[in-house]
Amino acid sequence: MCGIVGYVGEETGAKDIILGGLKSLEYRGYDSAGIAMICDKKIVTKKKVGVISNLEKIIGDPEFDSNIGIGHTRWATHGVPSDLNAHPHCNMDNTVAVVHNGIIENYMEIKEELLRDHDITFKSETDSEVIAHLIGVYYDECGDLHDAVTKATKRMRGTYAIVVMSSKEPDKIIGVRKDAPLVAGIGKGCNFLASDIPAFLKYSGQVYFIENNEIVVVTKDEIKIYDEDKKEIHRDVFHVTWDVDAAEKAGYEHFMLKEIHEQPIGIEETLTRRLTDSGEINLDGISMTKEDIEKFDKIYIVACGTAYHAGLVGKYAIEKMAKITVETDVASEFRYRDPLIDEKTLFIAISQSGETQDTLQALRLAKSKGARVLSVVNVIGSSVARESDDVFYTWAGPEIAVASTKAYTTQLVCMYLIALYMARTKGTIDNAYYDRMITELKNIPEKLEMIFSQEKDIEKIAEEFHRNNEIFFIGRGVDSTVSLEGSLKLKEISYINSFAIAAGELKHGTIALVENGTLFFALATQDSLTEKMGSNIEEIKARGAYVISIAKEGNELISNLSDRCIFIPKCADEVSPLLTVVPLQIFAYYVAKFRGCNIDKPKNLAKSVTVE
Ligand code: AGP
């Protein structure tokens, strides 16, 4: 997500204060940065693609400073990362500057109106630039920045946190919040606006949280909050006790735990950007046609690590729903097995970072052999995204912890949507099934919150078993793929030698390893496979295993056979991975914590493996 910083104070020095604030928001992920300040009564804007140090190289001029300014780190949504697309954006006469976090869904409608009725010239490809021009037009009509901002935001639909500055009223910055974070900081002889507390925590721990549809007017002496009708709102001051490092994690001890808990909003965000109000799947930005889908006779899903595990779930979904043969492979193997590919092949690459070299090379191979390439990516404008014919973005927001959690579940959402869209196109599912699946997906965020209520219990289990040196994960059907993901989470952050295997495969050799007390996680969420899983649990119990099962609430057969049972809310078998994986993520997190491991940055691992 983008980072926003605004400052107004008695003293000059806005440049360093804003730059420092942007650096403290780097954890939010970004691809460009910029600052605008009012220097000698004029707005001066400097912005640069890439890391903040690129921006620092162009703002050294001591004349470029002020007592008021706004800054931004951009996480691209509309328009690739570039100098021009970086924020702040200004209106044509350079009297209004805006920074924006979020998406203006009706920006094209507003843009067309501005082009038609006000002869506006746009410089960037972004939705955000529309805001600067719209406020400028309204300011010319009413002559008051607060009124102009209020009127403009009433026109805007979507999610946004914005901060606005005008050379015509150089004593204030104005912020507006709708579904994207915005906080105000109370300084000494100065005040702040920002996406998050770390941006000004060095100067103030006194915070006003801005709520949805509120407008905050900030001068060096005061901070006033208004509703959409300009009625002033009283807000209590929140006193921050966190230190800066803790604040970047929004109070969580590690990014991984924060990102585990961000999964409901990530799933909701990923869904809502792809579903119309009537529940249809919109393929904005996807050029793949119905004819293309009818033509495909094979699909490859290729990725690495957790992304590969998401692809395995995708295989189940697409084959069950769309009745198209799906082959899955890890990218590092796919490239060397001379895969059978032609123009009737769809190649789906899944990658959180979009920079995994193995996946990128596999994509290039598939493309060179005539496949159509669709990718599921979290980082906008990344290499995998740029080299694909179509991109289905996950809207998980930046994932900082090396262990992938919210990227995985939002990747699953994209796989389900792709499967449902293809199945609808091919007529292999009826409307009732489609509607049921969409409802199931929409209910996941709330069901995840119910799983989070068991976090303390799972933490206790982790404390009890954190000294184990081996832990097995078993499952059948789609649960066998989630067992792979649960095993990977555990091994990569706790360094326990964890192992996942299809439950039905145990008797073909692995069961020889079972001894008294061997710990198993048995994933048993598939209604149609409950009895089979019950038999597998009995098999390993008979040889001394200790079994912690994961089952749908009310499944007494499984819970009675197990030593412990973690229940997930009832759901359709197809979407259970979205729930089943979360207790395993939480377990892995607390085991690693009790083992004193570096959870966010495990040894030997990188967040994006950009080498082969
Ligand atoms: C997962 O927790 C790991 N960090 C790793 O397996 C990761 O999923 C893999 O390297 C793929 O990364 P990508 O999604 O960025 O391509």
Q: How many beta-strand segments? A: 25
Which cofactors or ions or other ligands sit in this model?
Answer: 2-deoxy-2-amino glucitol-6-phosphate
And the CATH topology of the largest domain?
Glutamine Phosphoribosylpyrophosphate, subunit 1, domain 1
Structural class: alpha/beta
Can you walk through the features of this model?
The protein is an alpha/beta fold. The protein has three domains: 244 residues, Aminohydrolase, N-terminal nucleophile (Ntn) domain (Glutamine Phosphoribosylpyrophosphate, subunit 1, domain 1), CATH 3.60.20; 201 residues, Glucose-6-phosphate isomerase like protein, domain 1 (Rossmann fold), CATH 3.40.50.10490; 140 residues, 3-Layer(aba) Sandwich (Rossmann fold), CATH 3.40.50. The chain is 37% helix and 23% strand. The chain is built from 20 helices and 25 strands. The strands form four sheets. The protein has an eight-stranded antiparallel sheet with strand order 3-2-4-1-10-9-11-15. A seven-stranded antiparallel sheet has the order 5-6-7-8-12-13-14. α10 packs antiparallel against α17. It is globular. The two termini are 29 Å apart. The relative contact order is 0.08. Bound molecules: 2-deoxy-2-amino glucitol-6-phosphate. 2-deoxy-2-amino glucitol-6-phosphate (AGP) binds next to α10.
What distinguishing features does this structure have?
612 residues; Glutamine Phosphoribosylpyrophosphate, subunit 1, domain 1; 3 domains; binds 2-deoxy-2-amino glucitol-6-phosphate; seven-stranded antiparallel sheet; eight-stranded antiparallel sheet; alpha/beta; Rossmann fold; globular; 23% strand
